[in-house]
Amino acid sequence: MALLETWRNLAYNTEADPKAAENFWNAYFTEEQRIYKEILGNPDEVVKGSVKDLASKFNVEVLLMTGFLDGINDSLVTPNPIETMEEDTEVSLEYDREKLYYNMVGCKANWLYELPEWDGLLSEEVRKNLYKKQKASGTFVREGKKIGRNDPCPCGSGKKYKQCCGR
Known about the structure:
By secondary structure, this protein is mainly α. Helices cover 47% and strands 4% of the residues. It contains seven helices and two strands, in the order H-H-E-H-H-E-H-H-H.
C-alpha cells in the first residue's frame, strides 16, 4: 500500500472515536505549524530528500510527513508524485510563496497563514491582496432539495428523517 493511501486511511478514519480523532488532528496541526515555521524561516533553502530523510529532518513519523506532503503539494513549484510515494521517493519542498499563502487562506488554515514568518516573505499588501482574491473566488456549495422532517430518511433506513439522521 502506498504511503498516501495509508495516511488517508489513518487520518480520515470515520470509525475512529471522535475524541481520538480530535487529538490526532490537534497533534498533526501542531507539527504542521512547526514544520512550516522552519521552512518559511529559511526561504532560500530548498528542502529536498527522500520522504524518510525529510521525516527525520523534521523529527516526525513518515506517515505524518506524508500528510504534510499531501497538504503542500498543490503549492509546490514542481508537485511531488504523492500518489505513488514510498519512503525512499525523492521529494522537494520548493514552494511558490504566493500560491502557498493563497492556498492556506483557501483551506482556512489561519494557524499557518498568520505565522509571523510570512512578514519576511510577502509584504502585508501582497498578503492582503491574496487574501481578498481567495475570499472573492467564492467556492459555493449547492444545496439539494431540503429534506422535510416527515420525509423518508435519505440513508435508506425506512424511518422518517426526524427519527433517523435528522436528530
